[in-house]
Amino acid sequence: MRIKELRERRGLTRIQVADRLGLSVVAVRKWECGQAYPSADKLPALADLFHCSIDELYGRTPPQTAS
């Protein structure tokens, strides 16, 4: 997941992310280090916080639709 990269791009600290999502700083650190992953119900809030899509959280580019 690209949580650390996206957080830093937005100029946020781990404390700010944790506060806005109602989590502990330890949880955010674990996500950034790959020791844990956010639950599915947190993904929309993370995407909104970082102004990105859920796909972007994972570093995924959605497939192109055929014309």
Describe this structure in words.
This protein has 67 residues and is mainly α. It has one domain: 434 Repressor (Amino-terminal Domain). 54% of the residues lie in helices and 0% in strands. It is built from five helices and no strands. The chain has helices at 3-9, 14-21, 25-33, 43-50, 54-57. The radius of gyration is 12 Å and the shape is elongated. The mean pLDDT is 94.
Spell the H/E element sequence: HHHHH
Beta-strand residue fraction: under 5%
Total DSSP E strands:
0
Mean pLDDT, to the nearest integer, reads: 94
Give a short account of the largest sheet. none
Distance between the termini: 30 Å
CATH class designation? Mainly Alpha
Number of helices: 5
Number of domains: 1
The helix content, as a percent range, equals: 40-55%
Summarize the entry for a quick read.
Helix content is 54%, strand content 0%.
Topology of this protein?
Blueprint: H1 3-9, H2 14-21, H3 25-33, H4 43-50, H5 54-57
Helix pairs in contact: 2-3
Name some characteristics of this structure:
67 residues, mainly alpha, 434 Repressor (Amino-terminal Domain)
